[in-house]
Amino acid sequence: MANYNRGTSANIIVGAAALFTYELGELTEDALPDLEDGVVYRETLSDPANVDSQDFRNIGYTSNGLEIQFQPDFGEVQVDQILDVAKLYKQGMQVNLNTTFAEATLENLLFAVAGADTDLERKASDGGLGVTSGKFAGTKNSALNLTSGQLGECPIERGLVAVGPGTGDCTPTEAIERIYVAYRALSIESVTVSSKRDEATMFEVSFRLLPTDAGSYGKIVDRTVPNNS
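Now predict its structure.
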């Protein structure tokens, strides 16, 4: 006789994820660094030995984690003999990723408004030359040029990778992680920039995830990482 099992508490996930953006545009499988034995993936994405410093960038602090919404759209077939629909068929799909950037950097704002890299003049400490002309020129200054865009302008897509807690028993000798990969992410909602006395400046962002030509939005990977130290 089978024993009734009420559930498994190890499958409950609590905790936020570290969020990385792929700065070169659409993310491909080949651009993702390989999994390393004994190394959690957020460390792999942060190690200059695995990725170029200009490829993946850590967004930093976020607020209220991230949320992925899957919104299928179904059509209906009605017949005369029954009052309800006789059949449903899938006619559309939409996937969104929502989060809030708690670090109000110009790099994060550029990402939130789907701006082009050329809109941001970075200071020298960020690997750029700084503002080179005008009243705000100087190697210690950064400037985000607010542009209206133009007709026919291509939307700016970037890849996203998030690494958070996964399912399974957490032990001192193992790390449990869940990796979220989005190949094409495009910021589609309005973004508010504020400066208030009693609130931190944060950017609420909604990304529309788009499929590749092969029809893949990305993947979600559960991984157990043994501690080799």
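The mean pLDDT is 89.
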